[in-house]
Amino acid sequence: xxxxxxxxxxxxxxxxxxxxxxxxxxxxxxxxxxxxxxxxxxxxxxxxxxxxxxxxxxxxxxxxxxxxxxxxxxxxxxxxxxxxxxxxxxxxxxxxxxxxxxxxxxxxxxxxxxxxxxxxxxxxxxxxxxxxxxxxxxxxxxxxxxxxxxxxxxxxxxxxxxxxxxxxxxxxxxxxxxxxxxxxxxxxxxxxxxxxxxxxxxxxxxxxxxxxxxxxxxxxxxxxxxxxxxxxxxxxxxxxxxxxxxx
Length: 247
Description:
- The chain is mainly α.
- The protein has helices at 2-64, 78-87, 100-133, 139-180, 186-198, 202-222, and strands at 90-91, 96-97.
- The protein has a two-stranded antiparallel ribbon.
């Protein structure tokens, strides 16, 4: 009887421990899901704000400059081309970038295709090497060769990504500087263009602010001059004095 009570207490303790463990695991899972949803919500807000601020800024700048295809400011990918076209030709020391919008649009697409092809070739070479060496070499040597290939591939990807990011950042600095310079000083245009490549949402905020300035300057240019005291709208007709016949 005493042994039955002892084993019964052990079973109750084990059940309680299992319940507490599962409850703690559920709380941790809910907390992780909540943090993930919070991060995704904040990221979504940033994406929407970036889309709207940049879109309205580019649209207003295009309107002020008399562009007919300003609706491209709200079209993904096309807005990148439109931003480069708003910049116009970029004059360097010995060369001129005539269509910066095309460069901003094509370079990311080409780099993505090159990465996809390179990754596919890497997978095929790794699989072929593993299959060919499985019969003649040991498992350790095959694993070492695969790890070496992975390291070499990631080094190449890192170098290519660095070159790509450097080129894109330089292009955006040149493009945005030439756009900002129309509505602020040269030094401030350079500062805003550089910070736009480093800080998230900074480029879109600048585009929106300068779009407002472009809109206001456009309204001032087309505003009719108001009459002043020196130039009245209506002037009294001059009455000629009758000639004195006695003279």
